[in-house]
Amino acid sequence: MAASCKTLKFCYLLKWQKCTTNTTGLSQFRLFSKDSRQYDYDLLVIGGGSGGLACSKEAAELGKKVAVLDYVEPSPIGTVWGLGGTCVNVGCIPKKLMHHASLLGDAVKDAAAYGWKVPSDKEHCWQTLVMAVQNHVRSLNWGHRVALKDKSVEYLNAYGTFVDQHTVKATTKNGKETLITSDKFVIATGMRPHYPEEIPGAKQYSITSDDIFSMQRPPGKTLVVGASYVALECAGFLTSLGFDVTVMIRSIPLRGFDQQMASLVLDNMKTHGTKVLHKCVPRQVEKQSSGKLMVTWAHQFERLTTTAAEDFDYYDTVLFAIGRQPCTRSLNLEKVGVEINEKSGFIIGARDESERTSAPNIFAIGDVLMVKLFNLHLLQD
């Protein structure tokens, strides 16, 4: 929600410049240089998600020469996707489709009471669902590519890293490197799921929301680690699709949300069959010769003692949903003077213009941008 507000604000800024380009007295406000012909592009957007695509098309409407760099780093198990970012490929869209599939299953169960003759041996086919979801996602990927072409925005499937203030090195999946210059840049690289590196086997054998929507085999008995909305949404539709699902919660569900409502959500999930392990933290994920994953966990209130009580169980799938981190660490931002929060990796926006970074010609929009307290009013406008 916050990322969408930031993106819209930046796009409105572009539209405002278009409306005031020839207005006397406002010429001192310019997002673009008067003469940027010395560069390959007027604007280079790094990231092809919701923010990057919207921004690039708005800039192109101003008559600027624009390109979008978009490259998906494979997840630990090798999952990749097309143009459109998290929402289109591994977020809102496939999640809603799988929720819809689970609701259809619930409707079928209730249909007999309303006169429908429903076969008693009905089964759900995971592979069919995944194929339908991925076909829809790929149609959106193609639609985004067509939309960029219609706006004369060049799409480059390559990973961008900064070389200097006006140069980015674009690297394709085959390792081909190209130097690209631009007058202005917008960083819109978004976020990816966090893996707990300190837990043996977690990154090697587990999956995240990056993988669940395209996973070819049925997830089977699943442990969802985390209590964010991503965790609970995944656990919810997997339960409704007929899988044995357990949610492991370290502290409280839906942190940051009203806890009375969070408790109601969790209670509702339990009545529908989702199991919950409260105040537990995973210690290790081990793959067995059978292919099952043995997860060992400790009860949180004893985790700091030398004799902490541990439990374990076997699962077919372990899904971690314990937070996300911005994709900024490998952009070489230190070379161009873009300030980031060293601990979190979020880009720190300027005090007067939240989307402008500490480098005057480099902007940031969406989830990578750190919102300061004095900029919170911008999200309310």
Short description:
The protein has 381 residues and is an alpha/beta fold.
Q: Uncertain regions: pLDDT < 50 for 5+ in a row? A: 20-29, 373-381
The helix/strand series, from N terminus to C terminus, equals HEHEHHHEEEEEHHEHEHEEEEEEEEEH
Rg from Cα: 23 Å
What percentage of the residues does DSSP assign to strands (E)? 15-25%
Strand pairing plus helix content: what structural class?
A: alpha/beta
Number of strands: 18
Protein architecture, described:
This protein is of the alpha/beta class. The chain is built from ten helices and 18 strands. A hairpin with a 5-residue loop joins strand 11 and strand 12. The longest helix has 25 residues, at 126-150. The relative contact order is 0.14. Residues 20-29 and 373-381 have low confidence and may be disordered.
Summarize the helices and strands and which ones pair or pack.
Layout: H1 2-20, E1 41-46, H2 50-61, E2 66-69, H3 85-90, H4 92-111, H5 126-150, E3 154-156, E4 159-164, E5 167-171, E6 177-187, E7 191-193, H6 202-205, H7 209-212, E8 222-225, H8 229-240, E9 245-249, H9 259-271, E10 275-278, E11 280-287, E12 293-299, E13 310-315, E14 317-320, E15 324-326, E16 347-348, E17 362-364, E18 369-370, H10 376-380
Parallel strand pairs: 1-2, 1-6, 2-3, 6-17, 8-9, 8-14, 9-10, 16-18
Antiparallel strand pairs: 4-5, 5-6, 7-15, 11-12, 12-13
Helix pairs in contact: 1-2, 4-5, 4-8
